[in-house]
Write a structure and sequence with these properties.
This protein is an all-alpha fold. Helix 2 runs antiparallel to helix 3. The mean pLDDT is 84.
């Protein structure tokens, strides 16, 4: 039991240190962005999307931890987090569609087949949830 508590404590410290390091790096990147004029728009969009996902996940985790300390129901936070996943998935699907329309973007057939299978399975589940099937 004591070993598990030690690991959890080390892991939490590691996360805190990593978060602080990333925060510092993001501040440096912010400074660079204000000076740089030659940033590829697609990379900047991907970066912004990643930041938004991390920001929303961090918010949801923060809300969950706050609710946990007050012993309140966490279903609302989980609902928000799930909603964010749906929003991000929609955006990613649209970006993949745009990439597929470009001839210069190389894709590996195996990855596309995996994506197709996953989206077909997801489509079947969505049909059941929204009452289409």
């Amino acid at each position: 039991m004591e070993e598990a508590l030690s690991f959890a404590s080390e892991n939490q410290e590691s996360i805190s240190v990593r978060l602080q390091n990333v925060t510092n790096e993001l501040r440096r990147i912010e400074d660079l962005l204000t000076l740089e004029e030659d940033v590829e728009p697609r990379i900047l969009t991907d970066f912004r999307d990643a930041l938004n996902r991390v920001r929303n996940t961090a918010w949801a985790v923060e809300q969950y931890l706050n609710l946990k300390t007050t012993q309140t129901d966490s279903i609302n936070v989980l609902s928000v987090l799930t909603g964010e996943r749906v929003r991000v998935t929609y955006q990613l699907c649209r970006l993949v569609q745009a990439d597929l329309a470009k001839d210069e973007v190389p894709f590996k057939k195996g990855q596309l087949l995996q994506l197709r299978d996953a989206t077909q399975d997801l489509g079947k589940q969505l049909d059941k949830v929204v009452g289409i099937a």
